[in-house]
């Protein structure tokens, strides 16, 4: 394979993510059993009612950007404000518990399969309320880079950030919009080109009534998904992955998997390339047309499906021998990943428009990616088969 004409090296970051990166999208823009430990097994931490370190770079809540985060020495027991934190039965409180448990369990599973790498953790808070926990494993035996981040944040969005978060044309706000957002976001980049990249993100979003519109109803919605981005196709792996996603969906509504599978194929579409980022999975957003309790349970089930859907594939492929040409193809596919995130991903747009720290916003990018001028794989080759599946989405199960 000819040498690359350009190589991107993205500095690593264990810094906090302002909000889970993956995709906020408009509803008009389609696109193992539970592994969560019992709450009693989670470490207990002090409350955030009094910050452990002085807050810096304070920004008034009336500002039209989200306040900068501040690293703290100890992660708290809760990121919810006192008005929310005392209500363990609220959707906010239960969703926070779910993402904390999911982060613990996913990181434990990844460290176990890696065998050498350990997650570095940063906890952070924000003057306007809330905070998050960023975990990054880098240069392990199996994973080049793996990030698993959670955030629970309050703030005020300018209109353009609201449009990035929820871009329905008939649902625009004239001024800054108070909001609450909580989510878990993860991107996993293995070293071996035969082990696929995985992305998953699940989030809950609420907007409050602006001060000049008393009595306006609070809006809420769920979003997220899990999708697979391999460099090479092993059909049994892809079928396994999609079957786990379908099983999670079918527990709630048999229409979910076909609907969210198509949404995923449509959303992760790189328009300027005419191809998808990978081989899909499920994706949904602005979901509020079902019972709120049902959707909370559905998001939890989806988060619980990540480990059984992905870890068996990595265990099977992590030690497969590969050559330089196959590694170069993996780097080229990572280039497509970078292009999608920087050009089309609404989560990235949301972070950039709200003044977040650039290293945090881009924490999901791989350490390295590759571009070659006018690269075309040989027709009929394994690389061509992957590209064909990205251009022409398939029904895997």
Kindly describe this structure.
By secondary structure, the protein is α+β, with helices and mostly antiparallel strands. It has one domain: oxygen-dependent coproporphyrinogen oxidase. It contains eleven helices and twelve strands. The protein is globular. The N terminus is likely disordered. One of its GO terms (molecular function) is coproporphyrinogen oxidase activity. InterPro entries: Coprogen_oxidase_aer (IPR001260), Coprogen_oxidase_aer_sf (IPR036406), Coprogen_oxidase_CS (IPR018375). It is found in: Plastid, Chloroplast.
**Beta strand %:** 15-25%
The total number of structural domains is: 1
- Termini, distance in Å? 34 Å
The arrangement of helices and strands along the chain is: EEHHEEEHEEEHHEEEHHHHHEH
Within CATH, the superfamily carries the name Coproporphyrinogen III oxidase, aerobic
Average pLDDT over all residues = 81
Using the CA coordinates, give the radius of gyration.
20 Å
Strand arrangement, major sheet:
2-3-4-5-6-7-8-11
Q: How many separate helices? A: 11
What is the overall silhouette? globular
